[in-house]
Design goal:
Elements: H1 2-6, E1 15-19, H2 23-29, H3 34-55, E2 59-66, H4 74-97, E3 101-105, H5 113-125, E4 133-140, H6 142-158, H7 169-174, E5 186-189, E6 208-211, H8 221-232, H9 242-247
Parallel strand pairs: 1-2, 1-5, 2-4, 3-4, 5-6
Helix pairs in contact: 2-3, 3-4, 4-5
The structure holds farnesyl diphosphate (FPP).
The site of farnesyl diphosphate has 19 residues, from α2, α3, β2 and α4.
């Protein structure tokens, strides 16, 4: 409670991105199967979504399945896909009621058809919502996304739609999966790993990075409040000096 009171509601990040790590370790510590950890992780997803909505944070991106996760044992991949479908099916009405709009980034076509169908329905059902934008990164990796962007830019250049001299940071952003969203200002990774692991490499250029030792299934709203307070205690300089920051507002967020 005390931590929540210390948070300045006017200085919240507009976009939080999360690497939800440690489901397997959390389960193993309890003598359970890894998949049990993923199931419990969904409860943390729920709490994270509700808390961000309550705080009025407009964008939340969750790294739910990476390109590299396809290399996990087949049973675990299937269990994760099934969990995804069942969770979306179960939660979509509440997302709609809570004014949450769902988006997906990643290699959508590589997902099983049933997942694509469920995700498309959820996107459609929540399309008119104006509160929290919940962005699920699925079959996503940043190197894949950047390579795809480069390929599409090259194709548009060859087709004469853009000129090579028009290619700049702003144009490149438009070719990323995240073109419609502002860049994250805070990236949280749970479970004590200090890596970005192919997640939003381009978009995290100016994000504050927060690493929590807590495994994802144990990550509760109190932990999010602590991350937010820690974020607010940092000085965001965007490459400028402290003196400039005290007199200027950053241009690129
Ligand atoms: C990382 O823990 C977690 C994942 C690969 C999957 C995260 C997915 C969920 C929490 C369910 C998502 C559901 C929805 C609806 C978004 P890990 O398995 O890598 O843990 P470990 O590092 O301890 O092995």
């Amino acid at each position: 409670m005390e931590v929540l009171q210390a948070i300045d509601r006017n200085k919240l990040p507009k976009h939080i991105a999360v690497i939800m790590d440690g489901n397997g370790r959390w389960a193993k510590e309890r003598g359970e199967d890894r998949v049990y950890g993923h199931h419990e992780g969904v409860l943390s997803v729920r709490e994270m979504v509700n808390t961000c909505a309550e705080l009025g944070i407009p964008y939340l991106t969750l790294y739910a399945f990476s390109t590299e996760n396809w290399n996990r044992p087949k049973e675990e991949v299937n269990a994760l896909m099934e969990l995804l479908v069942n969770t979306i099916r179960k939660e979509v009405d509440e997302l709609k009621q809570n004014n949450v709009r769902m988006h997906v980034i990643g290699d959508f076509e590589s997902l099983p058809e049933i997942c694509q169908k469920e995700l498309n329905e959820a996107k459609e059902i929540t399309a008119m919502n104006t509160g929290l934008n919940l962005i699920l990164a699925l079959s996503y990796s940043s190197q894949w996304e950047i390579t795809e962007a480069a390929r599409k830019i090259a194709m548009d250049a060859v087709a004469g739609k853009i000129k090579p001299e028009d290619i700049n940071d702003g144009l490149f952003h438009q070719y990323l999966n995240t073109a419609a969203f502002p860049d994250p200002e805070l990236m949280i990774r749970t479970s004590g790993e200090h890596r970005i692991s192919n997640f939003l490499l381009y978009q995290l250029a100016y994000a504050e990075l927060y690493f929590s030792p807590v495994h994802w299934p144990a990550f509760r709203k109190q932990h999010l409040y602590e991350a937010l307070l820690n974020y607010q205690q940092r000085e965001r300089r965007f490459g400028k000096t402290s003196e400039q920051i005290q007199t200027n507002t950053p241009q690129h967020v």
